[in-house]
């Protein structure tokens, strides 16, 4: 088979790859600290609602577009709207958006690589030392951040260069089961701690007093970020999907697994945080400063911390694979360059473009964009501007541009669902998804 154009060997391979695309920084790094900052249970509940009512229909839409054309994102929109090629900009937005996302995502991936390596030799938790000092040392030392960035980029290049079957699918089949096994071990350990009840209560008991327009926008962005929808990554993934595979069943599994991981992340983190009197509102440093401090007070803490960091690394890598793949697939279609050569070139470019974000905590710490660091500004642009925009454009496309009969045929093909399922899906895409996105974005814009 041509290495440039592969196909998933099995339904489970596709589901694990899609879940891997979804389960990454959004579910494990971002979800806990944003939940901590936004009041706990109420925020998590809103994210779950958004994921089911908005994320799932968007996931179905990307699957429909990709499998119906069997083409990567940019070409898929061209084929479905041949009389108005401007719609191909949805795919181009996805390629550009993933490229921008990788410029900060890879930086965090680099931190995790460094932390994972050091934790394996017992170097993260030092007796009588403040774990926050180690985090500040890692992000504040240029050569360390660049080394982590290089390692994370190299890992992606090696997997993506191998192709869909031998690279992405095989990696996900190993990493995703291990991720769940490690998570369950950590959750069981966390729930046996003395202060676990307070942590569980904070995470699951809804308190809507802290919910604002900004919280709603973050929850909406989180549901997009966590499911990897909006940038057409899953248009590209589903283009490798066989026709007999059920799209509704596959999408449901991905959503369930994503919500489950976010749930497990909360159960693994908040009981530990509350048991040892840490602050759940710490922010992005929650996993890198608060958790090591908490694990340092636990029997075999270094072992559990190493397990968590390896889990975190697996999730981050499986998610970044999808971002690389949409770019590689689009460029292969356009430039007709061999996958291996193109992936190496792309890895070098991503590394270079990521350098400003990597250095925004040290050499470029004085540089700000709209009162945000380069890293934070890039994150905000992706999560709160480009992802909502991409999702609105896809919603408009699937409802008003793509042939309705083709969409219905693709959605129901290979599944046991009847026409009622399609009508519910279409109603959500027509009346709920775009309206909620617009309302939440306006609420944030006008400070409601």
TrEMBL record:
Which terms in the GO cellular component ontology are assigned?
membrane
Record flagged with keyword Transmembrane helix: yes
Q: What is its main location?
A: membrane
Q: Does the keyword Transmembrane helix apply?
A: yes
SUPFAM superfamilies listed in its UniProt record: SNF-like (SSF161070)
Membrane-spanning residues where?
A: 12-29, 41-60, 93-114, 134-162, 174-196, 216-241, 253-278, 298-321, 342-361, 381-402, 423-446
Question: Which positions carry the signal peptide feature in this UniProt record?
Answer: none
Q: Where in the cell is it found?
A: Membrane
Q: How does it sit in the membrane?
A: Multi-pass membrane protein
Q: Which InterPro entries match?
A: Na/ntran_symport, SNS_sf, YocR/YhdH-like
User: What keywords appear on the UniProt entry?
Assistant: Membrane, Transmembrane, Transmembrane helix, Transport
Name recorded for this polypeptide: NSS family neurotransmitter:Na+ symporter
The protein's organism comes out as: Ureibacillus thermosphaericus
